[in-house]
Amino acid sequence: MRNRLQCCVWVAVAAFALFIPSSRASTTDTLLWNTNQNQVTADIHSVPLTRLLGSIAQHTGWQVFLEPNINAPVSVKFQDLKPGEALRMMLGNLNFALVPQTNGPQHLYVFRTAMIKATKLIHPGDLVSKTAKSGKIPNELVVTVKPGVKIDGLDCIQDAKVTGQIQGLNTYRLQFKDEAAAQQAQSCLAGNSDVLAVESNFSMEPPDLPVGVGNASPQFNLTPKPSDDNNCQVIVGLVDTSVGALGNGLDQFLMKPISVAGDCGDASGSQQISHGTAMAETILQGVQANTGGKTSIKVLPVNVYGCSGEATSTFDVTSGIYAAVNAGANIINLSLAGSGDSTMMHNLIQQATKQGVVFFGAAGNTPVTTPEFPAAFPEVEAVTASGGQGQIADYANRGSFVDLMLPGTSIVPFDGQSWAVSGTSTATAYATGIAAGLADSGHNCPTTVVPTLQKKFGVSLDGASGQ
Question: Do 243 and 28 contact (CB within 8 A), yes or no?
Answer without folding.
Answer: no
